[in-house]
Each structure stands twice: as C-alpha cells, then as structure tokens.
Amino acid sequence: MRPLLALLLLAACASPDRAFWGAEEGRVTLDGRDYAVYVDRDRAQPRVQVIRLGYARRSQHAAILAAMPRAAEAVSGCALVAGSVQGDSGVMTARLDCGG
Question: How far apart are alpha carbons 11 and 35 in whole angstroms?
C-alpha cells in the first residue's frame, strides 16, 4: 500500500528543469487538464516552462500541445516569441515577449 501512495503523491508533483529552479511557479487548468508553469523573468529574454500534470492518452496529445502555449501565456501574462516553442506534450519551453 505504501508504494502505491508514494506513486500517487509523485504523480501530483512537478519539478522544473534545473534552468528554471527558483522561477515563479503557477498552476492553471485548461480544458480539464492541469499544468504547472514556471516563469523565469530574471533574464534579458524571459522564458517559460510548462509541465503537463497527469497521464494523457495518445489521442489527447494534439489538444495538449495546443493548450500548453495558452497555459504559458495565461500564467506569465506575456506572449510567446514566435518560433521559440520546444518540447512535447509532457514538457514545453519557450521564450516570452513581455513587452518591455
């Protein structure tokens, strides 16, 4: 029973890439799916990392890929820099245009 409990607790957690340690963290739910969003504004070019929380079936990946940029913009309040999005339906990173 303990291994199952530990697995469930880990499934609810998200850790950003080392490059995003110390970044501001936000959570957002879009289309019924939860995302952890890490915004690093302490650079000349701000950036964001979005992590999908929870399991996703193969048929859901296209919708997740479409939602992740929306999640980044919703939490950061900034637009994504065109062509800067990298990653997959599990983890996405991008540069931000915060207008300043």
Answer: 12
CB-based contact 24:43 (threshold 8 Å): no
- As given in the structure block, the two tokens for residue 30 are 């879009």
Whole-number Å distance between alpha carbons of 60 and 14: 20
Task: Tell me the pLDDT tens digit for each residue of 25-49.
Answer: 999 999 999 999 999 998 889 999 9
Residue 45 burial by CB count (10 A; 0-12/13-18/19+): exposed, middle or buried?
Answer: exposed
Is 88 in contact with 69 (CB distance < 8 Å)? no
**Token pair recorded at residue 91:** 């983890």
Q: How confident is the model at residue 7, as a pLDDT?
A: 47
State the residue for tokens 């499934």: 11
Residue 87 pairs with which residues in a beta bridge?
92
